[in-house]
Specification:
373 residues; Rossmann fold; 8 strands
């Protein structure tokens, strides 16, 4: 039996586990991944980059051929896998590595080619905020064009951009009849990479602009808005639910109370991850400045303000955020609440349950559907 978790290479193993989980949501294919990984030299970041980038290039070529032949479903599938493999190719590179820009641009372009091949098409949108335009994708479920759908704003974490949220549960939201908004806010995707807009603690402000966008759509029931905050987005989601009463249900998919502890968890895994977090908050190469900035990302006195139904999902083996963080969030929640804690060693005990996506994602979006009807 294949076991991707190799203790001597925790970072490598985590990313393989992550990709296998995303494969179950259209962001890859398990055998394709296992063949690729078997050809790499374990722990060699350059092998990882070249292998994933090369596979993404092959798939994009196949997608273009399928699209030219009017095979829309095949083209869509290949473009989506290409998108996620381009994104995967940069995962072990340093924040300043110039190859990351090419991987990012190609991932964005591949998703943009896939978007109109959905039924209904996925719509690129822009959301005005503080004199800027936040880029996003607005998605409707099948048969959702004329309906007043409940809607989910899916908030990404520290190293995810909007295009890949479909592989992290966005597809499950659509299957359950939700409209879906995937957005790059400050510190995410296009905003940090193309416009140098770093992460900010008051993410409730850009999230509020996104909620306003959802309210403006005729396909959305403005009284049934939910948010899912994943990983570092667990902080963003909690803060948004605390300060915006338009949020009627909230899922913290990987709870985060104190970002300094998250930073320390990243640093324990690798110095590369520590430098990545420094880049994220605009403290490139400066540990002290990063800590000073991240100290502002804290939910003390905030969680208790949340009054909407809230589900906390976390695992005991999470290497980045201790389970005590999730318990503290849950204990301080001020409204109706539920918690799903995965025990050590059980399926789903990895960070954000990559190793048990079918059960975890079903639980999350079924719970949201129960709250919003």
């Amino acid at each position: 039996m294949f076991n991707p978790w190799i203790q001597e290479h925790v970072e490598w193993s985590f990313q393989i586990t992550r990709l296998l989980g995303e494969a179950s949501q259209g962001g890859g294919e398990a055998h394709e991944l296992l063949r690729l990984v078997s050809q790499m030299r374990l722990g060699q970041a350059n092998d990882w980059y070249e292998s994933f980038f090369g596979l993404a290039e092959q798939l994009r070529g196949l997608a273009e051929e399928a699209e030219e032949g009017s095979h829309r479903a095949t083209a869509r599938s290949h473009y989506l896998r290409a998108c996620n493999y381009y994104r995967a190719s940069e995962l072990l590179l340093e924040a300043g590595d110039e190859r990351r820009r090419g991987a990012f641009d190609n991932a964005r372009a591949s998703f943009a080619r896939a978007a109109p091949l959905f039924d209904p098409p996925i719509e690129p949108v822009t959301i005005p905020f503080d004199g800027m335009s936040l880029p996003g994708y607005f998605c409707l479920p099948s048969e959702g064009r004329q309906a007043r759908n409940p809607a989910v704003l899916y908030i990404a974490g520290a190293d995810v951009y909007k295009e890949t949220l479909l592989f992290l549960g966005g597809a499950e939201a659509l299957r359950r009849g939700f409209a879906l908004l995937m957005m790059d806010g400050p510190g995410q995707g296009e905003m940090i990479r193309l416009h140098n807009v770093r992460a900010q603690p008051d993410y409730d402000r850009p999230a509020g602009a996104a909620l306003g966008f959802l309210q403006s759509r005729p396909e959305v029931d403005a009284g049934r808005l939910a948010i899912v905050g994943r990983s570092f987005g667990g902080y963003y989601g909690a803060r948004t639910a605390a300060f915006d009463d338009r949020v009627k249900a909230c899922v913290l998919f990987g709870a985060l109370y104190d970002a300094l502890k998250f930073y320390e968890g990243y640093a324990r895994i690798s110095s590369r991850r520590q430098r990545y977090m420094q880049w994220l908050v605009g403290a490139d190469g400066d540990d002290a400045a990063a800590r000073q900035c991240l100290a502002q990302f804290n939910l003390s006195g905030i969680v208790e303000r949340i009054r909407c139904p809230t589900l906390v999902v976390h695992a005991e083996d999470d290497p980045f955020v201790a389970v005590s963080e999730a318990q503290q969030v849950y204990d301080e929640l001020g409204g109706p609440k539920a918690i799903r804690l995965i025990k050590s060693g059980e399926p789903g005990s990895a960070h954000c349950q990559y190793d048990d996506f079918p059960r975890t994602l079903s639980h999350i979006f079924d719970w949201l559907r129960d709250q919003l009807g």
